Amino acid sequence: MRSRIGLVDPSSCFSSQTLESLIASLANRIGRPRNLVFLFLVICVGYLLVISSTSKTQQFIDNNNLLGLPETDSLLLPENQDVDSITVASEPKRILYWTGYYDRADMIFGMGQEPFIKAGCKVTNCWATGDRTLLEQSDAVIFHAGQFNLSDLPSKRLQHQRYIFYLFETLPLSRNYAVYFSEAADHYFNWTMTHRRDSDVYCAEPYGKIRRKASSPLMEQLPPTLPAGERPVAPAKLMEYVQNHPRLAKKDKLLAWFCSNQKTHGRREDYIRELGKYMPVDIYGKCGNLTCLPKNSDRCNNLLDEYKFYMSAENSLCADYVSEKFYRALKTDIIPVVYGGADYAAYAPPHSYIHVADFPSPKELAEYLMLLDKNQALYLKYFEWKKDYDVLRGPLDGWCDLCEKLNDPQEPPKVYQSMAKWWYDDVPCYPGDSFIKTILNHNNMQE
């Protein structure tokens, strides 16, 4: 009977005489002087290679310990995530916060390796610190632009390091900051990490983002085919009157606005004042006579349940500036009316917001909002996107992208000649004075 592969009996391959013959032949060959010398050299070289490899491994571990980094084989993985599903680079990457983010030394993101793990990053071998003594061991050095100080810059810079310009405010009137006008800041930064989508690392952590639900199908055709066993929606249900819809239960007020600054570069306060001539606007904070304390609390967010619309007005009309005001409204059952310089169509699904720029004047915007107020079916159309999308507050994708870029050996060298040119000149903010003047002229022409 034939033996199966892997279960062959050694005795069936060699007889005792054959085995003795092989051993004798091998001994005879090794016994020759030239072969003995060759064998001795092979053993010596192998031994030296093993010693060298062990020494380098121990040196790498000792360096990690010296820098406060974990050993390579002890890099933490996210919970419920196996090694095969994550990219682990060969060497840890150090990220040094040269400044904090205002009063937050940890840049809000955190210190050490744990924030990258909690964020679910694909690459988790990055290590954040605020310890300046580790400057020379750092791969990236981050400077918050609002706290960039010419008298407090690193004294030494290594060729492989990336210096990062970090900012989330638009600062349209701050071109006189040192980070922009000083020659010392020219050819200084390698990467940008901001809310602008043309940044080297796009980061919307303080604000938010919208993500398609995993359960939502990506439709390649209309109408989509129905899964097996599913029936079309009954016509009677489609034709039902929507007056008792749960989203309308508490909403007996029109438009709310929470205001913290009375005078802004974008002149939002003047636009809303003009809008108030044609419809009721409840203004909370410094610009109005209503209050809700503490600010940004659950109590204030719950207050929005009484309103149908929320004025999501930015303080400046600058590229890609979409702040938490927008995402706070989208998170609740209220329609945001946006006043800002971003391309909102790139940030949110169609029919999820109303843009003031789509109306020639505040008067015509007011007429549209009051039309939606009276027509409940049209109003509810602005919430259909929610079945396919989730709103995330404080997304950490940017930090994950930063870690991946630091680990990419193909990442090309780069340096910014002038931050002022990139931040202010390439895509300039639109002065609110110009926008307000345009709409007021339109109003005067109508009257």
From TrEMBL:
Question: Highest taxon of the source?
Answer: Eukaryota
Where is it found, in Gene Ontology cellular component terms? Golgi cisterna membrane
- Stated EC number for the protein is 2.4.1.-
Which EC class does it fall in? Answer: transferase
InterPro entries, alphabetically? Glyco_tran_10_C, Glyco_tran_10_N, Glyco_trans_10, GT10-like_C_sf
As for membrane topology, the entry says:
Single-pass type II membrane protein
Where would I find the Fucosyltransferase C-terminal domain in this sequence? 249-422
Q: Which UniProt keywords apply?
A: Glycoprotein, Glycosyltransferase, Golgi apparatus, Membrane, Signal-anchor, Transferase, Transmembrane, Transmembrane helix
Q: Which residues form the signal peptide?
A: none
Q: Where is the Fucosyltransferase N-terminal domain?
A: 91-203
Main location (coarse class): Golgi
- Mention any Pfam family matching this sequence: Glyco_transf_10
Which pathway is it part of? Protein modification; protein glycosylation
What subcellular locations does the record give? Golgi apparatus, Golgi stack membrane
Example GO molecular function term? fucosyltransferase activity
Return the similarity comment: Belongs to the glycosyltransferase 10 family.
Protein name in UniProt = Fucosyltransferase
Q: Show the taxonomic lineage.
A: Eukaryota, Metazoa, Ecdysozoa, Arthropoda, Crustacea
